[in-house]
């Protein structure tokens, strides 16, 4: 405590001199530490002689980074933190009363940005260059946003820990893939069918696990996810096992035009525009955006209906729920079913987008990532979850682009291989910084005078 | 009170028994709760009061016995056969808990809206119509908020309506729990120690609230309470339990002077019952000792000459060990035995 106040007192008198001094110390310390770790490397040559190789350039880079980091921290970050701490009280009151335009309309602005995203990308990097950005970032992130919003109903609202959510994703994907390839049904018929199918399996899972709570529930749902995957692998007659199903039909625009170059209704022919693969990607982007927004809309709507309130009440206290005449069995089943339904929608979309699916896409890691997004975003909060999906999934994709890391860590460094490590570090950092996720507070569903967010100190995570 | 004699009691408990393994928590308990009255269920710690509540509200399934709830419409419900949530939804019995169970992460208003779940569920067409924005959900929603506001005013929580329930003070949480139970529209309200942990002022406000509920909504109240000031003040009818058995039943005044009740609460030796009876007029004796574990359960007391044989405490019956809730230690039983043996001991107590 005294050290901190000492620091601040000094930094107010001459922040830059102090910062330079501290940066020098940090540089010295890191040079001493990293001298052997990074600066020297012992290898053997062909005749088994031990050779000492030096990496002075890398060592210098690391030491310089440490020094700069320390300088910036002391000179700018600490004073900023102090200033904020000192002004916290009055600022909060002012912010509440005088909300800026951006803050009041932040959701509308976000949605407008999402709608304009493909346009911006196409106009900056061109039709062909947009493929990567729209597909890898836009569509990929939005699929996870939708999945996480679906799981949010089960985990975030109803407080039922579900580790097998990917099973419903798989059910939706296989429902579309099988019915689409065998019967040639349209995506627009099979989308609701896939949702209903997944909801059915959600209820089926729900029944046996209704009595389980906490760890036991988590284990059974985990097992359920694995059962579905193993069935998909081993039921070769229907699912073609690990070989997967290929040639899944593309989505058409309600039969008006489609995206097969050879078809007479190809979009290029209908609108007389040049042939490009980017149309389908952009179409998929808008489709998944619409599906994700539907999920958000339904979730927001449901929260204000009695069933949504009952879910949250169930998360807070199940016994009290029953004492108020709420049928907790049905309430849990609806949470499972509706959460699973959105997983099914996302699955059908996934199958249509990939054109090929096999059980490898539905491993436990997927469930874990989706759950991690929900927890990181703040359970129950749609905006927090969207940010978390962007950070986690978008961040993974961004890593591929970070070729400059090769300059630091050598040519053999492939950043993608380290993504899980970075992912883990990011999660630990976020959980230390914000233990209840990006958005820990909860918006009330009804109010008399003013809607005040409920602090995360009062909400519960649920245990069943 | 008028006309209650002609009416059937709202709740009738017949030969209720609840055994946990070999432990008899309630043994052959019968009592009735008259309609439109406040019935208090009292007794020393561990007497089985909360167990009776849990049986009535369906959280336990009783081993034996029948619990009949008669609604104002004349409909009869056998509570021991119903799942817990239907007891509230259909038979209109609501309850509160000894350790407050609020939805702490939801606002005070939301807590009261959750309590109106079933009515709102029907109004929203079981979610489907409500989701599409069809049907009368909007009106029902407005009505539910009005009902919540009514109870917020009654419970004096209007200015806290938009705060999280977990942020309220202890006394306010108690009042909110009662308001929440009332929002389910019950005909019988079961309160498990509503005055526990309240200061005298809050306790007084609680009395007002409960009397107001009985007066304005006609709801009958069944009450577990340790705070004798509350019990004697507001209840019309008192049932006293000891070791899962009823030892007294009647008006507050008659129960207060019942030697068995005094013995149960104070755990005095039989010779001293008479001396205590002299002091009966002074209710503070009871109040002072209430809440303290009855001395009757202490081992020192078992040296009484009235202690039963060992076979009395652990009894082999049909292969399973049954441990009756220690009748040997029951002071009420001792008094009973004594009064049976000798002629009525001390009728010299003060006139009631």
UniProtKB/TrEMBL annotation, chain A:
Task: Give the UniProt entry's GO cellular component terms.
Answer: plasma membrane
Q: Which organism is it from?
A: Tianweitania populi
Q: Where are the transmembrane segments?
A: 23-40, 56-78, 109-131, 137-155, 160-179, 185-204, 216-235, 278-300, 333-352, 364-396, 417-433
What membrane topology term does the record carry? Multi-pass membrane protein
Q: Pfam families of this UniProt entry?
A: BPD_transp_2 (PF02653), DUF3382 (PF11862)
Question: Where is it located?
Answer: Cell membrane
What is this protein's record name? Branched-chain amino acid ABC transporter permease
Give GO MF terms, alphabetically.
Answer: branched-chain amino acid transmembrane transporter activity
Q: Which InterPro entries match?
A: ABC_transp_permease, LivHM_N, LivM-like
Every copy of the High-affinity branched-chain amino acid transport system permease LivHM N-terminal domain together lies at 19-116
Q: Which UniProt keywords apply?
A: Cell membrane, Membrane, Transmembrane, Transmembrane helix
From TrEMBL, chain B:
Q: Where is this region: Disordered?
A: 326-352
| GO MF term set | ATP binding; ATP hydrolysis activity; L-isoleucine transmembrane transporter activity; L-phenylalanine transmembrane transporter activity; L-valine transmembrane transporter activity
Concerning SMART domains, the annotation shows: AAA
UniProt record, GO biological process: D-alanine transmembrane transport; L-alanine transport; L-isoleucine import across plasma membrane; L-valine import across plasma membrane
Q: Which UniProt keywords apply?
A: Amino-acid transport, ATP-binding, Nucleotide-binding, Transport
Superkingdom assignment: Bacteria
Q: Where is the ABC transporter domain?
A: 11-268
Q: What SUPFAM superfamilies has UniProt attached to this entry?
A: P-loop containing nucleoside triphosphate hydrolases
Pfam families in UniProt: ABC_tran, BCA_ABC_TP_C
Q: What are the annotated GO cellular component locations? A: plasma membrane
Q: Which family does it belong to?
A: Belongs to the ABC transporter superfamily.
Name of the protein in its database record: ABC transporter domain-containing protein
The scientific name of the source species is Tianweitania populi
């Amino acid at each position: 405590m005294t050290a901190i106040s000492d620091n601040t007192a000094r930094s107010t008198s001459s922040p830059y001199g102090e910062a330079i001094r501290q940066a020098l110390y940090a540089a010295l310390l890191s040079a001493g530490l990293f001298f052997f770790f990074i600066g020297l490397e012992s290898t053997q040559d062909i005749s088994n002689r031990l050779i000492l190789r030096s990496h002075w350039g890398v060592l210098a880079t690391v030491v310089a980074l440490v020094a700069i980091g320390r300088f910036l921290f002391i000179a700018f970050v600490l004073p900023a933190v102090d200033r904020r701490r000192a002004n916290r009280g009055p600022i909060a009151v002012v912010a509440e009363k005088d909300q800026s335009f951006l803050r009041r309309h932040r959701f509308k602005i976000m949605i407008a940005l999402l709608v304009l995203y493909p346009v911006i990308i196409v106009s900056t990097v061109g039709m062909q260059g947009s493929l990567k950005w729209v597909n890898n970032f836009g569509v990929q992130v939005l699929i996870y946003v939708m999945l996480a919003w679906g799981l949010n109903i089960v985990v975030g609202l109803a407080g039922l820990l579900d580790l097998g959510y990917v099973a419903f994703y798989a059910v939706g994907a296989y429902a579309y893939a099988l019915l689409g390839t065998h019967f040639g049904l349209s995506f627009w018929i099979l989308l609701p069918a896939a949702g209903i199918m997944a909801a059915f399996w959600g209820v089926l899972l729900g029944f046996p696990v209704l009595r389980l709570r906490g760890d036991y529930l988590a284990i059974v749902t985990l097992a359920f996810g694995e059962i579905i995957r193993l069935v998909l692998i081993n039921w070769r007659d229907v699912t073609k096992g690990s070989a997967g199903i290929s040639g899944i039909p593309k989505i058409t625009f309600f039969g008006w035009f489609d995206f097969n170059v050879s078809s007479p209704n190809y979009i290029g022919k209908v609108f007389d525009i040049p042939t490009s693969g980017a149309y389908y990607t952009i179409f998929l982007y808008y489709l998944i955006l619409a599906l994700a927004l539907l999920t958000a809309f339904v979730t927001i709507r449901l929260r204000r209906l009695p069933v949504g309130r009952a879910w949250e009440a169930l998360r807070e206290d199940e016994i009290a729920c029953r004492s108020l005449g709420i049928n907790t069995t049905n309430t849990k089943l609806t949470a499972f079913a509706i959460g699973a339904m959105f997983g099914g929608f996302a699955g059908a979309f996934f199958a249509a987008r990939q054109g090929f699916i096999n059980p490898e896409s539905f491993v436990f890691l997927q469930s874990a990532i989706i759950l991690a997004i929900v927890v990181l975003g703040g359970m129950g909060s749609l905006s927090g979850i969207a940010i978390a999906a962007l950070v986690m999934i978008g961040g993974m994709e961004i890593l591929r682009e970070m070729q400059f890391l090769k300059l630091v860590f050598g040519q053999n460094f492939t950043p993608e291989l380290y993504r899980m490590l970075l992912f883990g570090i990011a999660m630990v950092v976020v959980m230390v910084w914000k233990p209840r996720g990006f958005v820990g507070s909860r918006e009330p569903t009804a109010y008399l005078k003013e809607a005040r967010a409920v602090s995360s100190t009062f909400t519960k995570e649920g245990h069943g | 009170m008028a006309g209650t004699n002609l009416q059937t009691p709202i709740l009738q408990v017949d030969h209720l028994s609840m055994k946990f393994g070999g432990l008899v928590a309630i043994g052959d308990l019968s009592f009735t709760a008259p309609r439109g009255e406040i019935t208090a269920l009292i007794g020393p710690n561990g007497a089985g009061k909360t167990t009776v509540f849990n049986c009535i509200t369906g959280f336990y399934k009783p081993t034996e016995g029948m619990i009949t709830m008669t609604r104002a419409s004349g409909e009869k419900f056998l509570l021991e056969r119903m799942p817990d949530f239907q007891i509230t939804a259909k038979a209109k019995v609501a309850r509160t808990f000894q350790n407050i169970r609020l939805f702490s992460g939801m606002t005070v208003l939301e807590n009261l809206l959750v309590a109106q779940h079933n009515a709102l569920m029907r109004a929203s067409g079981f979610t489907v119509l409500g989701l599409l924005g069809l049907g009368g959900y909007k009106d029902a929603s407005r009505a539910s908020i009005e009902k919540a506001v009514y109870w917020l005013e009654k419970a004096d929580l209007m200015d806290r309506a938009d705060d999280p329930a977990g942020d309220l003070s202890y006394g306010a949480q108690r009042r909110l729990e009662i308001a929440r139970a009332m929002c389910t529209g019950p005909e019988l309200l079961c309160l498990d120690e509503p005055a526990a942990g309240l200061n005298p002022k809050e306790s007084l406000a609680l009395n007002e609230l409960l009397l107001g509920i009985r007066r304005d909504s006609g709801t009958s109240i069944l009450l577990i309470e340790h705070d004798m000031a509350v019990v004697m003040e507001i209840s019309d009818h008192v049932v006293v339990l000891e070791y899962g058995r009823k030892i007294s039943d009647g008006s507050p005044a008659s129960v207060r002077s019942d030697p068995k009740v005094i013995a149960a609460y104070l755990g005095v030796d039989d010779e001293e019952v008479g001396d205590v009876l002299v002091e009966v007029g002074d209710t503070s004796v009871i109040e002072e000792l209430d809440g303290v574990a009855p001395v009757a359960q202490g081992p020192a007391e078992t040296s009484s000459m009235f202690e039963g044989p060992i076979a009395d405490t652990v009894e082999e019956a049909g292969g399973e060990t049954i441990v009756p809730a220690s009748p040997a230690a029951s002071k009420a039983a001792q008094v009973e035995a004594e009064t049976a043996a000798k002629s009525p001991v001390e009728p010299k107590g003060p006139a009631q």
